[in-house]
Pollen allergen Ole e 1 family
Amino acid sequence: MATRVLLLMALALFIFPVATATLHVKGSVYCDTCRAGFETNVTFYIEGARVGIQCKERKSLKVAFYTEGVTDSTGTYHIEVENDHGDHICECMLVKSPIKWCSTPDSGRDRSSIVLTHYKNGIVNHLHYANAMGYLRDQPLPQCHNLLKYYLADSDF
Ligand SMILES: *[C@@H]1O[C@H](CO)[C@@H](O)[C@H](O)[C@H]1NC(C)=O
């Protein structure tokens, strides 16, 4: 009996802080100045870009949770989520670019799936990284033509 109580107490101590801990989601937003569809060495990271995190119910696909954040001077956002969303389908998404000439979301890089749960394969994890998301510059920079030749030649396909 005593062992069982101790075990329960240990279990509660283990589970309680995890269940109430905050999840941290980090990622970045860039401006693809070459309209390349990927980050190049003339890509820059956008400060003040608004990013949303949306979670939907798996069955009904109804939106169950939504929050927003803004990128800092390095183009990185850091959004805190209070509850575990392991039962939901969650993704980060571009909301708004502060730069007029770089505000067209790259349709291939405008969202990023994330699994918002503390438990993943039995490992407790509070920090979640989303893939970088990007906007396309209205006009590619003049040097992009040569730059892309270099990038595509380098990538062996
Ligand atoms: C980007 O890479 C290309 C190819 O290596 C190079 O010629 C160019 O100078 C680089 N540009 C910057 C801004 O680093």
